[in-house]
Fold this sequence. Notes:
Elements (H helix, E strand, L loop, with lengths): L14 H8 L34 H12 L2 H9 L2 H5 L12 H28 L9 H5 L15 H16 L1 H25 L3 H19 L10 H10 L10 H8 L6 E2 L1 H6 L2 H7 L9 H19 L7 E2 H7 L23 H63 L12 H15 L28
Antiparallel strand pairs: 1-2
Helix pairs in contact: 1-7, 2-5, 8-14, 8-16
Amino acid sequence: MAKRSWRMTSGPHWLLLLSITFGAWSVPIDRNAVPQEAHPPPEGKQEENLDTGLFYDRYLREVVEVLETDPLFREKLQAANTEDIEKGRLGKELDLVGHHVRTRLDELKRQEVARLRMLLKAKLDSTNTETLQIDHAALLKQFEHLDPHNQNTFESADLELLIATAAKDLRNYDLERHEEFKRYEMLKEHERREHLRGLDQEEQEREEQRLRRLSEKHRQHPKVYAPGSVAQLREVWRETDGLDPQEFDPRTFFSLHDTNGDGVLDEQELEALFTKELEKVYDPRNEEDDMIEMEEERLRMREHVMKNVDVNQDRLVSLDEFLRSTQKREFGSPEEWKTLDDSKPVYTEAELQQFEAELREKEAELAQRAESLRQEEELLKQWGTALEAQRKEYQQAVMDMSQRQRNQQAVDGQPLPGPNGELQFRQEMKNLEEQGANATISLDFPGEERMNTSNEPTQNLPLHTS
């Protein structure tokens, strides 16, 4: 679940919409590391973006990039507060942007509408729906991130809808991650049970003992401090920042780990603070440690800190919020963090049984589809065999016809055709002509008779005198 960087430069408020997935895993500062020479990125190579998972991800990105090119809108954005952004009040400022910005936004909207129309047409085609006429305006109403009534220009309503929809969808991001993890854990348990069912009694006992040993080994780890506690932050201050834990200063700590310098700790910068605690429990080299579980643990830690520190619930931790959290009683509590192994299972037995029933239905569906494909393959093989037999029959028929033609010509006394189908007597005449032409050539090779082509009479003929 590694994340890559896509930073906004217009201040912390715009990050309210995009901080969940547009951020990077911020790397903590290691003051003990040997400095390395900075290498500039290759010319023309841009920073790789992270897909938010939203189906309108590209449209959202491009609108943000275009809006940031207008200096007046950027200034208004920097002065706006979280409530202004969430309630779409920035849409009124759209009328003040430059003409070239509005033109580009209009073009982006028309492209997005065209893309959505293609998606709708593909969906209708896939369901074999017989539609002579398609009301695109009515169908586009199911998409909430743009105004379907105006399909040609980008207006303030489009900006307000885009912000509201993105905020709503991104708020559900963590819930979807938890749900995916639950399904992952249920699939693991299902596969474990299926594996054990395939073993005999003795093998089952050995495998269960092995799994218990791995589980016990995984639980044997150093104490994990509660995320956001003074003990946990001091550990980062000492191990990562290389500073004296007795000189821990919350304000300096905040500045050190605000890695992009925007004045707030976003969710990715917070999650980077938990790396040391997670390394106590999870090691990718160990068979008993599951790295997907580690990412779920990281998410739980971040949610715990946000719940106790993020007062205005804007998914960002300001310096003021951070400093106030250090004054709470919970900040100095030495309470140990309960990992996934110590907490309740993420699923119930009833949920697991329902999940397994769904798996069986899908397996039956896939088996039926596989059988259908096998029958189609067998039918294609039969067709191929029949076509090959027919080809051989045609080839034999041509050979038989050619042989009958040769036999008929032999009976009629006609010369048989040559290898290329020409008549043989023509070839013989050609040979005779060549021999006649060669007869006029004088040969001087020893041991051979010389042909006399002069007008003198030969010796064996009588000479006539006058």
